[in-house]
Each structure stands twice: as C-alpha cells, then as structure tokens.
Design goal:
The structure holds two protein chains of two kinds.
Chain A (H helix, E strand, L loop, with lengths): L15 H6 L11 H11 L1 H18 L1 H8 L40 H37 L1 H16 L2 H12 L3 H4 L3 H33 L2 H8 L4 H37 L11 H9 L6 H28 L6
Helix pairs in contact in A: 2-13, 3-5, 3-13, 4-5, 5-6, 5-9, 5-11, 5-13, 6-9, 7-9, 9-11, 11-12, 11-13, 12-13
Chain B lengths: L1 H22 L18 E2 L10 E2 L8 E5 L15 H6 L8 E3 L10 E3 L7 E3 L4 E5 L14 H11 L11 H5 L21 E2 L5 E5 L7 H5 L27 E7 L3 E6 L17 E5 L4 H10 L4 E2 L7 H9 L1 H4 L2 E2 L2 E10 L9 H10 L2 H7 L2 H4 L1 E3 L24 H11 L6 E7 L3 H15 L4 E7 L4 H5 L3 H6 L2 E9 L5 H9 L18 H12 L3 H17 L3 E8 L2 E2 L4 E2 L3 E2 L4 E2 L5 E2 L1
Parallel strand pairs in B: 1-2, 3-12, 3-13, 17-18, 17-19
Antiparallel strand pairs in B: 4-5, 6-7, 7-9, 8-9, 10-11, 11-12, 14-21, 15-19, 15-20, 16-20, 22-25, 23-24
Helix pairs in contact in B: 9-12, 10-13, 16-18, 17-18
The chains are: A mainly alpha, B alpha+beta.
C-alpha cells in the first residue's frame, strides 16, 4: 500500500523554512572518504566473500592447535597402520574418514587435514610479514624518491631497477640455501631461522614494485594545489610529508599490500616446493605439493594443499580487487 | 607410420607368445635357451621370473633396443664412470680384461674372461697378476687391440683430476714410480714397475701389497682399452672408441646416444656376447614417471637406471596382477643406513648409540625407503646378504621400536631423561627426509629429541656430513647415508666405509662414523689372508663389531621393483649389478 501523495487534512511536519535552513529530520551529513569507500565495499558482494574467507583463514591459522585438537591428530604423528606396506599408499586409496577428514599422507600416514591447517600458519605468517616488510621499505623509498626528486630520486630509482632485474626466484633459492648454513652466527635455529629468512628474502626483494607506485603517486601529489597551499602557508617538509602526502597514499598502499599477499603466498609455496623453504617435518603447503608430485596416483594428497593455496590466493585477490574499486573508483581496471 | 604399426605388431606378438607359455604351465617358450647364458632354465611370466632364470630366451638378431633414463650419468668414458648402470651398459661397446658372466642371479657375480683368454694368473704371492689377450681383437677402426692399449687405459683412468669419476683402486694398489703424476702430465715416465707389457698380447700388473681378488679390479671399466692417439682427455667421452660389438653413432650429451654395430668386432673372439639388436637408442632426461608408463605400455624396453619404478607406478604395478607378473624384485648389494656419529657427545658412549637403535621404528624406516618391495628388507647389519661372509645378526629387535630397552640403554649411558642431537639428511631425497621424520617421531618416545637438517645432495659428503669438522661444529649426531658394493665381496662393499684410515679431515668421506681400532686391525689381517673363506669370515666379524658398537643404524637392504620389458628377449637380473643384464638383451 502506498500512501497518497498529498494526504488531505494533514499539515506538513516540517515547516518549509526549516527545510530551507537544512535542519531536516535526518540531517544531511558530510561523509568522509573512508565512509564512502566502506559503503562501496559493502555493496561489492564478491569482495565481501573474499574478505570473509580471508578472516576465516586468519582465524584458522591462529587457532590451528585448537582446530586440530577437535577435528584431527597432531600434524607430525605417524599412522602407519593406515598404509598399505607394499605400495606405500593409504589403504583404500585416500584414508578419508570421519577421523581423517582429508585422508592421510602416503608413506607415513600423517593426518592431511591437520597438516593443511598447520600449513596455513606458515603460509600466512610469511606472506603477511613479508608484505609488511615490502610495504614499509617500498613506501619509505617511494616517498623519498618522489618528494625529494633530484639525485635522491635517481639513486633510489636506479636501485629499484637493479632489484627488479634480479632473477628473484633463483636468487632467493641461493640466498636461503647459503644463509641457512650460518645458524650459529645468526643466533637462531630451526623453523624460526627459516621463517625469518623467507620473510626477509621475499619481503626485501619485492619492495621495488610497491616503491615505484608510491613514487609515482608522490610525484603527482607533490604538485597538487593543497600541497602548494600548505607550502605557501609556511609548512615545512615533515609536515607536508606526514600530514598532506602520506594520508593520500593510504589507499594505494592498502590496495597493493592486499594484492601482494597472495603473490607472496605463491612465492613461499614455490620456495617450499623447490625444497628451500621450511625444514621437515613442519607442514607447509608448497612442501606438501612437492611431495605429492611423486604420488600422482593418490590425487587427494595434491588436491588439499593445492586447494588451500588456490582458495587463499583467490580470496585475497578478490578482496584486494574490491578494495581497489572502493578506494579508487576512477582507477582503470 | 610404418614404425608405429611395426611396434604394435611386435607387442601383439609378445602378448600372444606370453599367453601360450602361460598355458604351457611354466615349460618355457619354444626357443632354446642360449648357449652363452648356459643351463639357466627359461621362465614363465610371473613375479620375480627374471631373478633366477632367463626370461624369453632367444638368439634372434635385429631390431632396435630402446633404453631411457630420467637424468644422465657421469660419463660414457670407461675411465671416468662410477655408476652400476654405466658399468653394466659399457660392456656393449667396451671390453675389459674380464667381466661378469651374463647369467641370472648369483651366477652373474662370477667373472668370465673377456679381452683376456683366462682369468688372471697370480705369482709373487698375489702381488703380480698376468693376463694374456685373445688373438684377433680390433678397435672399431680396424686397428688391432694390444696390451699397450689396456695399459694406457688403466693409467689414464687413474688421473682423477682430469677424469674425476670412478674408483681409485688402481691408484691405491699399483706399484707406481714416485715421479709418475698422470699420463697427461708426465707421459714419459716409465711405469713398468706398475704395469708391464712384455709383448702385444701380455699385460702384467704389479701391486704394492698382495690382493687375492685382483680379478675384480681387472673387471673395472678402467681396463677397457683406449687407443692413445685417439685419447682427448675429458673430451674422450664424446667419441669413445669401441672395442665391443657396438659403436657410438650419434652422441648428444644430455639428450641421446645411438649405438650401431661395430663391424670390426669378431664374434669368434667373444664367447659371452650375443650382440642381438641391430642398434641401441638411449634417451636421456626423460621424465621418470613418463618413463615408467612407457615401459609398462611396451613403448620402451629398459630404464637404464635400474633402481626400480617411481612411487606412482609402484602402486599400479603391485596392484594389478597382470602387471605384477611382469615385475622383478631383486635385492641389491646396497644398504641404506643412518650413521651414528661417535664424535658427538653423548654418542661417544656406546649405550647412547644403542639407545638410538633400540628406539628406532625399524618398520617405519623400511616404509620410509619405500616398503618391503620398493624399499627392501629390514637390515640387521651393515653388510647386505649377497656379500660373501654375510651372516644374519640378531642384536636388536626389528619391530616398531622398543622404548623400554632404549630407556635401559639411556640409563646405562647416564642420560635417563634422554638427550638432544641433530640429524642430517639429503634434502632433495624424499626417502631420506621420510627417514629423518620417522626417526624423529620414534626417538621422541624414548626422550631423544632430534633436530632435522637437510643438506644438498651434491656436497653432502664433500662439505657437510662427510666433513669431520663440520659435523663436530654443528653437533650432527646422526646422518642418513647409503652404500652399494663396487663388486660383491667384503672388500668391494666394506673397504670404503668401515676403515677409519680412509677418513680425511678435508671432507669427502663415505665412512662417517666407524672409527674402531679393532676393525682396522681386522682389515689389515684380511689383506694378509690368501684364503677367500677366511677373508669372508673376517668381513662378517667386522659387520658384527659394527653392530655391537652401534656405529650405524641399518634401515634396509635395498630392493627395487623392475618391470620386464615387452618385446625384449634374454631378460634377467644379473647378480653383479642387481638390475637387468644389458649385455645380451635382444628384440623380439
């Protein structure tokens, strides 16, 4: 039922003067850029699903011991009674049951579910921290190059060129291999050392990508009117950098950070696949994949870690794309 | 097109004859057993049919024998190679003084004269060995083979700076003059004190000390003659001059080799070779899983590596009765084991070392290496059963780990609560990684905490596990490891891995953990001993001492699942290399 347009016998609740003055029932509020972006993001269902999966993955990683306690077995525990000793594959093909949700690994019968869940910890930890490292270095370098220009710009830009020209994968393999042998002198050992090394290698060599984008943005921001205005009012370098330019860089930084995480998940998986990642017996997705290649006749072994990587990368990418659309709608896709 | 249908036809023919022989009930196929491989009975198609008998014997000539390998091996140069597959294959193009008899099973470990008329004659109490060459031997270019070519080949094979691969037995045993460095650096030094060639047919070796098993040296590829004027040092591998029935036609290193008949090889000079196929095609760098599938489908005859199928094909072969009937499961003269390194505390105490063996899950280790078919039998000692002097040891349980006994041993060692140590393994070897993971799990139950560390295979012995100061500095208490016999006697298997005097501080050691005066003394005793049975018994005692002192934790005596080729004849596993004998294979 619709209300009649002009109900007779009723006086308007708001006097026309008030409307003119702008004091309505619902006052019209100015929205910040953040609020607008949030509204756009809320309308993007695909991005929301991505965000939901990302949150779920992070929760999985944080609560891995708890999840495994309830639904699985310790990730390094052997269940050799589940293995056919002639072919070394799980009895009955996969070993999937209510007890072993994803089945068991060939050879030693470790619970695949637990290992995939624990693998999320390594993957996300390395990917996120490596991204943070890239973003911090990239932002500092990019802003410096863009804002100061001149020889600073030349120096930093050429450095970035050098880094971009590195055969990253090969170099990372070599570096992890070499540095891994100096445990005594580095003062850390085992997984801590390996994780630290991977974060360093992945993060340190990926900063030029984000650095270039930040440099370009800074270059254009530097010449904008509001910066000129601030400068003509007597603002000095630090003020302009931190109060005028940096807030305007938040959007690109966020977007590229979100899009860099899935790249780093893949990179970590690739390094683990090639055997320079985390040492046995710690579970990683890439490491599981590389083992699974030998056992292509037991496809579930490859399927679950592969799906884990796939879903993680897809979720971060969808969320990142949505975030870009929301924060920077003018950007061409 | 033609080629394809011909292959299909051959395969159909093979299937038909297999069906027939199966109906005949193991009576063998119609073709007579060949003379070279003598009285061995022909085998019907069944699991392990090629272990003790010749499968599908035939004397039919012609055809192309197709071989492939997933990687590459060190070299086709007879003086520069140290792989069993290569020593097996090399005999189709090269003839050493003596060689292993092409016969199935243990018979294949016996030596037959090849270039020589007979096995070596020793004099001077086993310090001098004389061989007489057959008449009418020729290289592929028609020039006659003389004893000088053999001498030159042996001397060049000793230059391990130029030809880096291969054993150093001649270097260690021949009585060479001090000023001799190598045939390339000091070509004019008189080496008659080591090898004499009084005439073109006679070659005499002089040793520093007596060795009764010198014929095993004479069977090394190093005695395959090399004409001095054709030798190009390390490049000789690009054109090896054939002395056997086949010569290289196409050589594309890392990709493929083809061999064709050598018309200057005279069958009258060669009683052991049949030389059946018209040519050999050898492809390198074929994907290992693809290779297995092609052998199963009959598209390829032989996986040159001879170490067995990959895990994926294993499930297929053992799971399917018709495929399993085409498989052979030989036990090799190779042991996979973990060295328990007594340099590193608390493993300097024998009880702590024993605790590790007690606590280890021996079934888990077997599984790690691939299970009972692809891995091997659980090893109770270091020496594999095919070595002379082997006796079954029963010092430790072989179940899934005895925590009680391990704890007792730990208490005796003064570490009732266990201890921590580091275990090294070759990172790119999944089986050794699985071994390390299994040990970590099993030892934790007894309170022994292992930290696992993977090192690259390439430098594993040179820089890591085989380098004493690296091992000590990094506190490596355990290291996975494996060893295969150069030939099947105690000397051929044990000499490089139990003698503490072979350990060099500079690294590159294969003996990681056995430093025992008593064992060293026994080895010296063996070299004094001329009686084979007594030598064998002493090697057996050394094996026992190794286990009593718990210097190694043996995992398995290696086995592999080989798939018999379709459409190939004279297929059998030779005891010399524990893979298919490549000498007399033919094409149906």
């Amino acid at each position: 039922m619709t209300a009649p347009l002009d109900a007779p016998g009723k006086t308007p609740e708001v006097p026309p003067e008030a409307v003119l003055a702008g004091a309505g029932v619902k006052a019209i509020q100015g929205r910040s850029l953040g609020q607008i972006a949030w509204m756009r993001l809320k309308r993007d269902k695909v991005a929301l699903v991505g965000a939901g999966v990302v949150v779920l993955l992070i929760l999985t990683a944080i609560f891995a011991p708890l999840i495994v306690d309830v639904f699985g077995h310790p990730p390094n525990e052997f269940h050799q009674e589940m293995i056919d000793t002639s072919t070394m594959t799980p009895q009955g093909g996969t070993g999937i049951s209510g007890d072993f949700l994803f089945g068991v690994e060939p050879v030693n019968g470790r619970d695949l579910f637990s290992r995939v869940v624990y693998g999320a910890r390594i993957s996300l930890l390395i990917a996120v921290l490596a991204t943070v490292l890239s973003v911090v270095i990239g932002t500092v370098m990019g802003v410096m190059a863009g804002y100061f220009g001149g020889w600073v710009d030349t120096l930093i830009s050429r450095t970035m060129d050098v880094f971009l020209a590195f055969p990253l994968l090969v170099f990372a393999m070599a570096l992890v291999g070499v540095l891994g042998q100096f445990e005594q002198s580095l003062g850390v050992t085992g997984d801590t050392l390996r994780i630290g090394l991977l974060i360093f290698v992945i993060g340190f060599f990926n900063w030029p990508y984000i650095g270039r984008i930040i440099r370009g943005q800074t270059l254009s921001l530097r010449e904008r009117e509001f910066v000129d205005a601030a400068r003509s009012l007597g603002a000095r370098g630090p003020y302009i950098l931190f109060r005028e330019i940096l807030p305007n860089l938040i959007a690109p930084i966020l977007i590229y950070a979100t899009l860099l995480i899935p790249t780093n998940v893949l990179f970590e998986a690739a390094l683990s696949f090639l055997g320079v990642g985390i040492q046995a017996p710690t579970a990683t997705w890439g490491g599981m994949l590389s083992q699974a290649v030998k056992f292509y006749n037991v496809p579930h072994f490859m399927f679950f870690p592969g799906m884990a990587i796939f879903i993680t990368v897809l979720a971060f990418n969808l969320f990142g794309d949505g975030l870009r659309d929301a924060l920077d709608p003018k950007a061409s896709r | 097109m033609n080629k394809k249908s011909a292959v299909a036809f051959a395969a159909a023919g093979a299937a038909l004859s297999l069906g027939l022989s199966a109906c005949g009930g193991g009576g063998g196929s119609e073709t007579k057993p060949a003379d070279g491989s003598s009285g061995a009975p022909a085998a019907a198609e069944a699991f392990n049919a090629g272990l003790e008998a010749v499968f599908n014997p035939s004397d039919k000539k012609g055809g192309v024998l197709k071989m492939a390998i997933s990687e590459d091996w060190d070299s086709v140069d007879p003086g520069d190679t140290y792989y069993a597959l290569s020593w097996n294959l090399i005999r189709i193009y090269g003839r050493s003084l003596v060689t292993y008899t092409p016969a199935p099973g243990a018979e294949g470990r016996k030596l037959s004269p090849d270039l020589a008329e007979s096995l070596g004659e020793s004099s001077d109490d086993g310090k001098t060995w004389t061989y007489k060459l057959r008449a009418g031997l020729k290289f592929e270019d028609g020039t006659p083979i003389t004893s000088k070519d053999v001498k030159y080949a042996v001397l060049r094979s000793m230059d391990k700076e130029t030809l880096v691969n291969g054993p150093t037995y001649f270097n260690d045993w021949l009585d060479l003059p001090k000023d001799f460095k190598s045939v390339y650096k000091t070509p004019d030094v008189n080496t008659d004190s080591a090898i004499e060639t009084p005439d073109d047919q006679t070659i005499v070796f002089h040793l520093k000390k007596a060795y009764g098993g010198f014929d095993n040296f004479a069977a090394l590829p190093g005695t395959i003659p090399v004409p001095k004027d054709k030798d190009t040092g390390v490049k000789y591998r690009e054109h090896v001059v054939a002395s056997g029935p086949y010569k290289f036609d196409k050589v594309e290193p890392g990709k493929q080799y083809t061999l064709v008949r050598n018309e200057h090889w005279d069958p009258a000079t060669d009683p052991i070779r049949k030389a059946l196929p018209d040519s050999y095609e050898i492809s390198l760098g074929v994907n290992a899983d693809d290779l297995d599938n092609r052998i199963i489908s009959g598209d390829l005859h032989i996986d040159l590596a001879g170490s067995g199928v990959q895990p994926a094909a294993l499930g297929r072969v053992l799971g399917d009765p018709t495929l399993k009937a085409r498989a052979d499961n030989p036990t090799g003269a190779r042991t996979w084991y973990t060295s328990i390194i007594s340099d590193v505390a608390p493993l300097d105490n024998v009880d702590c070392r024993r605790a590790i063996i007690f606590a280890a899950d021996r079934v888990g280790l077997q599984n790690a290496y691939g299970g009972e078919f692809a891995g091997g039998d659980i090893a109770t000692g270091l020496m594999p059963p095919s070595i002379g002097g082997w006796k079954k040891l029963d010092l430790y349980p072989t179940g899934t780990g005895d925590v009680e006994k391990a704890k007792e041993a730990l208490t005796a060692c003064g570490k009732p609560d266990g201890f921590e140590t580091t275990m090294a393994y070759r990172a790119d070897r999944p089986k050794e990684k699985a071994t390390a993971e299994s040990l970590q799990q099993a030892l934790a139950k007894a309170g022994i905490k292992l930290t696992l560390k993977g090192y690259p295979t390439g430098d594993y012995f040179a820089l890591y596990a085989g380098k004493p100061d690296f091992v000590k500095k990094n506190g490596i208490g355990l290291a996975t490891n494996g060893w295969g016999a150069d030939w099947n006697d105690g000397f051929g298997f044990m000499s490089q891995i139990v003698d503490s005097r072979t350990i060099r501080e500079s690294g590159g050691n294969y003996n990681l953990s056995i430093k025992d005066k008593e064992i060293d003394a026994k080895i010296d005793q063996i070299f004094q001993e001329n009686d084979v049975a007594k030598r064998d018994a002493l090697w057996g005692e050394i094996d026992q001492r190794v286990m009593e002192q718990a210097y190694v934790l043996p995992a398995v005596w290696s086995k592999g699942v080989l798939v018999r080729p379709q459409g190939a004849t004279n297929v059998f596993v030779t005891g010399a290399f524990d893979m298919y004998d490549y000498l007399n294979l033919g094409v149906q």
